Every structure is written in C-alpha cells, then in structure tokens.
Amino acid sequence: MKFTTEQEAFWAGEFGNAYMERNQSEALLASNLNFYSRALRQAPGLENCIEFGANVGMNLRALKLLRPCIDQHAIEINANAAAKLREFLPPQNVYNVSILEHEVKRTFDLVLIRGVLIHINPEALATVYEKLHSSTGKYLLICEYYNTTPVAIEYRGHKDRLFKRDFCGEMLDRYPDLELVDYGFDYHRDPTFLHDDCTWFLLRKKG
Hints:
9 strands, globular
C-alpha cells in the first residue's frame, strides 16, 4: 500500500498496531453505547452505515447493539485492524485502504467519522471532506477534538500527528446541502463513562 502523507504510514504501521491493542475493552463498549444513544437520537431510519477509520470496530459494535438490523461497512488503513473487523463484518464490507484512496461508489444512511479527522494531514482534508459528503445519503456524524482555529498538538511524543480545528464548521461552509441537526460534548471526567474531551456534530443532507 502506497501513501501520500506521513500520517497514513504512521497509522498503517506499528503505532497503529499499538493503538489497536489498547483500544479494546468492555468499558469502551459501554461508553460507546452511551455515546451513540445520545448522538443518534435524532437520526431515525438508519438501514446502513459506513465508518471512516473504523480501527477494530468498537464504534460499529456499539451501533449494532443499538440498531441490530443496520448493514455496516468500514474503511480501515491498518491491515491488522481490518482483519479484526472481518471477524464480525462481512469481508466484502471491509475496505483495507487509506481514506484518501477510498473510492466512493454509493451513499449510506449514516456516515461516521470519530477521532480520525484530527489525524489527517491538513493539506488532505479537502479530499476527505469530499469523500464524506459524497458518501452521505442522510446523516453524517463527526466526533473530533474541537478548536475555533486550526492548531497542531504533539501526540504521544510525535509531532504533526494531531490537528484540532472546527471540522464541522468547515464542512457546513463547504457544502450548503448539509445542515446541523444536533451536537454535544463528551468530558473526560465523566464519572460513569470513559470519554475523551470530544465534540460531536450530527449533520443531515437536505433533499
């Protein structure tokens, strides 16, 4: 697999493998259940979905418990994580490819991206935004670290691997057919559920 940015190689390699190993737990699944029950309360009628950057599928596993009949698809750059996804998703529904190289062939009722845009090279964001928008049939759920202006943050000792900005605002400005339906904030000191300090936005495509 060839990559056009340093960030892609970073997540496809050993760091991505280590991330996969430390992000699987019952506590995380419980937290995700709590999250999606709130974030998708205004998104009825979801028959299918795709997650951009699904890792081992902790988001999709939680969503499947809440919406048992939903047909799930996943894009994942790390081969080991993609193998884990194929343990519970139909193999043909798992796309082991960089988001930047993913070819959009259809739309989905729900497009999900969570904790992924922050790790995309800023110069490649326009490409990712277009793929997210083109894939969205009804709803787009974005959950990322938020900042009013773009800023780069050191991530686990690595520079240029985490970027905060107003991802939702940029997509609303770029695509007039998207409208904000709901939003919220998850706090890392929540006494019950495991969370990062992330802001989520539920968008709907008009028409």
